[in-house]
Amino acid sequence: MDLSQAKNAVEAMLFAHAEPVEAQRLAEVLEMEPETVERLLVSLQQEYDAQKRGVCLLHLEERWQMATRNDYAACVKAILDKRRNTPLSQAAMEVLSVIAYNQPVSRSFVEQVRGVDSSSTIQTLVQKGLVEEAGRLDLPGRPVAFRTTDVFLRAFGLQSLAQLPALHADDYALELSAEQEEPEGGDA
Questions:
Q1: DSSP code, position 138
Q2: What is the pTM of this model?
Q3: What are the angstrom distances between the C-alpha of 24 and each of 27, 63, 106?
Q4: DSSP three-state, residue 144
Q5: 3-state class of 160 per DSSP?
Q6: What is the pLDDT of residues 168-182, one digit of tens each?
Q7: Of 112, 143, 177, 187, which has the fewest CB atoms closer than 10 Å, so is most exposed?
C-alpha cells in the first residue's frame, strides 16, 4: 500500500469508527510504523484546514477523531434534530409498548401480540436507539431478544421501567379489589 492509499484508508477508518482512535491502533491495522501514520494524520488535518472542509481532524492527546467543523454545527444540529424528533408511528408505539412491558422479548413474540410483521418497525426503533438487542433467548432457534434502552427512558421521562404506567388489566384488578373492600350499602 502506497502512502496515498494509506492516507485514504486512515480517513475511511476515522470516518467509520466515529470515536477517537489512537494512531498506534491505526498503524497496527495498516501494518505501518506509528510515526508514518502520525504524519499521514497531520497531513490530513492540514488538508482539511486549508480547504475549509465541512469536517476536520481533532487531535485529542494520543487519539484522533473526525468531527464536524464548528462553522457547520448549526446545520448538523438541525438535520440531526429533525431525524430524532420525527414522531413515532402508531405501529412503532405499539411495538415499543410490547417490548417495554414484556422485555426481553423476541421479534416473533411482538408479532404474535400485534398479529402483524414487525421486523421493520423493530429495526426503526433500534436505529433510533430506543430498543437494543439483549442477547438470545433460551428458546428453540435461540431468537434475538430485544429490550428498551436508556434513550427510551430519557425520551419518555422515566428513571426506570418501574415508572411505566400500569396496564389496563392491572387497573381493572385494582378497581375490583377496591370494590370488594367497600362496605355494602345502608347497614351502618
A1: S
A2: 0.48
A3: 5, 9, 40
A4: strand
A5: coil
A6: 655 555 555 555 555
A7: 187
